[in-house]
Design a protein that fits this description.
This protein is of the alpha+beta class. It has four helices and eight strands. The N terminus is likely disordered. Keywords: Signal.
């Protein structure tokens, strides 16, 4: 998904990303027990593209910049972040983030925090930049493991750039996953049903 939102939006959001979330308590040093690394989606498990196949990048340590418009690590403990990015030959992209916390309670709090950030992202984008109009939509919950929630975000700039994104936050035990799909266009082009299936697969596949 092309990122045409002005850099001022990114700066403002980074500063404000945690303003609406609950404070999360960091685990004590060395307190996180060892566990198998969570598994990631494969390219074939993303919503099918009508004219191009998906390509999956490597699983990489760290937090993906492509989530920075709505979700960030601001004010969140230094958990174990890993991500995988996906692309097509056209202007469509996706990313999956996994976050391993210390306890199920911490993961529950983190999942709520991330979902709150996605839910309020449209308002924060508009507050951060007068050049952006944004609208969020709630596509409801997905019944899988400890639960997941799917939301949509449409942005349009004063110079005519328009983008649509679907984002989900899900949890399995003490691990949280965030999945984002995006392309140019509006809500009418969003594959909501297919993305819900991708979200369910992403959470089920973690362990």
């Amino acid at each position: 998904m092309s990122q045409r939102v002005p850099t001022g939006v990114l700066t403002a959001l980074t500063a404000a990303a945690f303003a609406t979330g609950a404070v999360l308590t960091a685990p004590a040093a060395g307190a996180t027990p060892k566990a198998p690394a969570p598994k990631f989606l494969s390219a074939s498990e993303l919503p099918p593209h009508p004219t191009s196949s998906w390509t999956a990048g490597p699983v990489t340590d760290g937090f993906p910049e492509t989530l920075g418009l709505c979700v960030s690590t601001e004010g969140v403990p230094a958990y174990s972040y890993r991500h995988r990015e996906f692309r097509t030959d056209l202007d469509t992209g996706a990313v999956q983030l996994t976050v391993v916390t210390g306890t199920a309670a911490q993961a529950k709090a983190l999942a709520k925090h991330y979902d709150d950030l996605v839910r309020t992202c449209a308002d924060r984008l508009e507050e951060a930049s007068p050049d952006v109009q944004a609208e969020g939509r709630d596509y409801g919950k997905v019944r899988v493991e400890e639960g997941a929630h799917v939301r949509g975000l449409h942005t349009e700039t004063s110079w005519g750039a328009t983008d649509i994104a679907l984002l989900s936050v899900g949890r399995d035990g003490r691990t949280v996953t965030v999945v984002k799909w995006g392309q140019m266009g509006g809500f009418e082009g969003a594959p909501v049903a297919a993305f819900k299936k991708t979200t369910r697969t992403a959470v089920e596949k973690l362990y």
